Amino acid sequence: MKRSFTIYALGMLVVLLASPHVVRAQSATPATPATPAKPASKPKTSEVKYNLNTASKVELMKLTGVDAATADKIIAARPYTSKKELVSKKVMTQSEYERIHEHVMVKSNPQAAPKKTGR
Predict the structure, then answer these.
(1) How many CA atoms lie less than 13 Å away from 40 in the CB half-sphere?
(2) What's the pLDDT score for residue 22?
(3) Cα–Cα distance between 40 and 73 in angstroms, integer?
(4) What is the pLDDT of residue 30?
(5) Closest by alpha carbon to 50, among 10, 11, 106?
(6) How confident is the model at residue 14, as a pLDDT?
(7) How confident is the model at residue 31, as a pLDDT?
(8) Dihedral of CA 10/16/17/22: which sign?
(9) What is the pTM of this model?
(10) Burial class, 16, CB count within 10 angstroms (exposed 0-12 / middle 13-18 / buried 19+)
(11) CB atoms within 10 A of CB 73
């Protein structure tokens, strides 16, 4: 009986000594929010995309890696039906195209399109 009392007393001592640590550890952890956090999204910017068929030399030179000579080549190879024609027409290399393809677009130029004649 003395032995069971000693085991019981040691058990209670361990519980009493450990309880402040348990309470502190539980209060130190942040509470989980009731609603899940929204994923971070990119702020929408009004990024300008230049039309390869109508952009001026100055506008084209604002693109990364496009100098005056490259801008002149882009203008000389007009009209474009696709931005990938910059590579297929050998205006620029694939690596140069990769740098600017997100900043350019191709829209047909209605003034440059031939007019249909009705008979």
Answers:
(1) 0
(2) 57
(3) 40
(4) 61
(5) 106
(6) 75
(7) 60
(8) positive
(9) 0.54
(10) exposed
(11) 16
Query: Could you tell me if 95 and 109 are in contact, meaning their C-beta atoms sit under 8 angstroms apart?
Result: no
The secondary structure element, H or E, covering residue 51 is strand 50-51
- Which residues, 6+ apart, have CB-to-CB distance to 63 below 8 Å? 50, 99, 100, 103, 104
Mean pLDDT by 10 residues, the chain (119 residues): 79 73 59 60 64 95 94 96 95 94 86 54
Q: Where are the alpha helices (DSSP H) in the chain?
A: 2-28, 57-60, 68-76, 85-88, 94-100
**Hey, what domains does the chain have and what are their CATH numbers?**
50-105 (1.10.150.320)
Integer Cα distance of 82 and 80 in angstroms: 6
Q: Which residue has the tokens 């677009």?
A: 105
- In the prediction, which pLDDT does 47 show? 78
